[in-house]
Design a protein that fits this description.
In chain A, about 35% of the residues lie in helices and about 20% in strands. Chain A is built from 12 helices and 14 strands. Classes of the chains: A alpha/beta, B alpha/beta.
């Protein structure tokens, strides 16, 4: 066990992957000499060479399309998209090619490509640097979409994503890059990449979330405890496929569900999760599930992001709401 | 603002008349070229007859496929009529360890790579999304998205360099694709990393109904210079010129000198696809001009001038073409409709519980009909 930041845990995960498999190649903008704008690839080009850690021209579709060609040739490309909002030029290659070449070719050609994307807000950034575009990718058949919340998961999951024979879009919660935690690099007995995890056990409300908000949700569960409420926090980890079994087990215990994510509400993961759980758990639900999300607006200017981003109080308000508590600001109806 | 000379009534803007490498005139006369003659010095009568055979076979099965579509056996077909020399001359220059990333119109290239008659039918009959195993014949599933494959070829070429082999990747695309960002990005990447890739553009003058003047105001091959890539314009209806240019580009790539851009100037004599109606936009006079430059007639004339291509050889060629077309037709009829539950196959390599759930629910739904029967 070593204590490291989430960014350093990713770095060591990438280092293991490069060590373990000669077909692993990293491609991205500024990932070489600079070590990435968040330093996640720090030192990797120095240690593995410019041949395996490639600084590319400034063209996201180009990076993704070249990764497809490398995968055709038997390589295992790991692509870095510098910021969430820069992924859109690469969406064409991701959706029309990466996601479906295995399906198109009847299983003849695999696309073991990992796409790393720092995502989410809370760092006071300018436009296009704080977005949460995960739903676009979760909606795309053939892509696996995952995100990590702790240094341990960051390390384990990036290695699993690279080893996975399917394309994986790997969302990194950028405002948590500097969170520290214990990391076991042994890679023994690790949970499967597509499984959710209960990170706080509870009995009254299931609070489902992922990525940057897992820490916020844990804080909310702790605060709710002071209020006599037992909140179970489920870290989804995988956004496609969603581990509905783990969620179902939790909701069968609590009968109540709150889902929170930074991304906008409409057509988002919250809607998908609530639909799946309503389908499976209608008989045990004691109140209508509630979403706490970013608003259906473009990501706002930095001085407004505290309003846009779900925080501890908005999450607790939703918890009160599913509990039918009078002091919920958003759910109480005076009769 | 479009330039005044960009008008659907003018299929051939003035700049398209620019010089192109030509080794055989439309009359079948061999034109010497000191730079490119060495690249085809070994091409004797026998090899010329083989190229002739390829072009005749390809034209024959292309015609058969159009007929199959008209008869309701295929959903769609993109004819390559008129582009036989561009496809055969380039594809026959390749080695088996080279790799082709093409668009949907390169059925002539697929034939050269070893696609079987039935393989050419699957996609267009709608029984599969790919006709063949790409690695089995060194050719990716032809791309429907315009220009995307140029990046795949570039990435593949980088992989060849990493592997220390001298295989080359070839991207086939059309004049329309040259307006795409991906093609531009592919040339930037290829030039930056000296990738052993050939950008083979068949300028057939049309992107569905849009004349090439909507895509380019200068000869397309001129663009290559801006990337630091050698560009050459060849007469795409001259199989020898195409072969010479391709061989030269392959040699350059194998030597480690990087990419080459080839613009093969040709003409799409048929519709964009069987769903298209070119009478709405093609000027018949333009088409007649191009008919006079027919690639097969041209080679026939050259061969006859050389006292080659006996009547016996011609009938052999015809027989081979008929046999291939017949095999394609019977292969088309014989293609099985896929099993319903195969819709769920190969989405992922590793199992997806969510998809398994949909599959089992749909299987149970289908089973109810069996019980009723």
């Amino acid at each position: 066990m070593t204590t490291m930041t989430l960014a350093a845990a990713l770095n060591s995960g990438l280092r293991h992957a490069l060590d373990d498999d000669p077909t692993v190649v990293l491609l991205g903008e500024d990932i070489g000499t600079l070590g990435g704008v968040f330093r996640v690839t720090d030192g990797l080009q120095r240690d593995f060479g410019a041949d395996r850690v490639m600084d590319t021209p400034l063209a996201e579709s180009g990076i993704m399309g070249v990764a497809v060609g490398l995968a055709y040739r038997g390589y295992r490309p790991v692509v870095e998209i510098q910021f969430d909002g820069f992924v859109y030029p690469a969406v064409d290659q991701l959706v029309t090619q990466v996601a479906r070449i295995h399906y198109r070719t009847g299983g003849a050609v695999r696309m073991p490509i990992t796409v790393r994307i720092p995502y989410g807000g809370g760092i006071g950034a300018v436009e296009h640097h704080s977005e949460s575009p995960e739903a676009y990718f979760a909606h795309t058949p053939g892509l696996r979409v995952v995100t990590c919340a702790s240094p341990q998961d960051a390390h384990t999951m990036i290695r699993q994503a690279i080893a996975c024979d399917d394309p994986v879009v790997f969302f990194e919660p950028k405002r948590r890059y500097w969170v520290k935690g214990e990391v076991d690099e042994s890679f023994d007995d690790v949970p499967l990449l597509d499984r959710a995890r209960v990170v706080v056990e509870g009995t009254d409300v299931t609070l489902a979330t992922y990525g940057p908000l897992v820490i916020t949700a844990r804080d909310a569960a702790l605060a709710a405890q002071d209020d006599g409420l037992s909140v179970e926090v489920v870290d989804l980890r995988s956004l496609s496929p969603i581990d509905v079994d783990t969620l179902e087990a939790s909701v069968r215990k609590t009968g109540r569900l709150v889902v929170t994510h930074e991304a906008q509400a409409s057509g988002g993961l919250g809607a998908e999760i609530i639909a799946s759980i309503t389908d499976r758990c209608f008989d045990v639900l004691r109140s209508a599930p509630v979403r706490v999300t970013g608003f259906d607006t473009p990501y706002p200017a930095a001085k407004l992001e505290e309003h846009f981003l779900p925080d501890l109080d908005r999450i607790l308000d939703a918890v009160d709401r599913v509990m039918g508590r009078q002091h919920s600001l958003t759910g109480w109806r005076a009769s | 603002m479009l330039r005044a000379d960009v008008s659907p009534s003018r299929a051939l803007p003035t700049h398209q008349q620019a010089e192109a490498l030509q080794l055989v005139t439309p009359d079948g006369v061999r034109r010497p070229d000191p730079e490119y003659d060495p690249w085809i010095a070994d091409v004797d009568d026998e090899q010329l007859e083989a190229l002739y055979e390829d072009m005749v076979v390809v034209r024959r099965f292309d015609t058969e496929a159009v007929a199959l579509q008209r008869q309701g056996q295929l959903g769609l077909w993109p004819p390559l009529l008129g582009q036989e020399a561009a496809q055969i001359g380039s594809a026959r220059a390749l080695r088996s360890d080279d790799f082709v990333f093409s668009s949907y119109r390169e059925n002539g290239v697929a034939y050269c790579r070893g696609a079987q008659p039935t393989d050419l039918m699957r996609v267009w009959r709608g029984t599969a999304l790919a006709g063949w195993d790409p690695r089995a014949i060194g050719m990716a599933t032809p791309q429907v998205m315009i220009g995307s494959q140029t990046l795949h070829a570039t990435g593949y070429a980088l992989g060849c360099v990493k592997d220390g082999v001298d295989s080359v990747a070839v991207a086939y695309f059309g004049d329309g694709a040259t307006s795409k960002g991906d093609v531009h990005e592919a040339m930037v990447f290829a030039a930056t990393f000296t990738a052993p890739v050939i950008f083979f553009c068949q300028n057939n003058q049309w992107a569905i109904s849009e004349p090439v003047g909507l895509q380019a105001q200068r000869p397309i091959a001129d663009r290559a210079a801006g990337y630091g890539i050698p560009g050459i314009r060849v007469d795409g209806n001259d199989v020898l010129a195409v072969m010479a240019a391709t061989r030269s580009a392959l040699d350059r790539a194998r030597r480690g000198d990087g990419p080459t851009f080839i613009e093969a100037v040709t003409y799409r004599m048929g519709p964009h696809t069987t769903s298209d109606d070119p009478t709405r936009y093609v000027n018949p006079e333009d088409k007649a001009l191009w008919a006079a430059k027919d690639p097969i007639v041209r080679l026939e004339r050259l061969l006859h001038a050389r006292d080659a291509l006996s009547e016996e050889r011609i009938s052999q060629v015809k027989e081979k073409a008929e046999t291939f077309a017949a095999a394609m037709r019977s292969g088309c009829y014989g293609l099985p409709v896929p099993e319903p539950l195969s819709v769920f196959e190969d989405v992922f390599v590793e199992p997806s519980p969510a998809l398994e759930r949909q599959r089992s629910q749909y299987a149970a739904y289908l089973a109810m009909f069996d019980e009723e029967a």
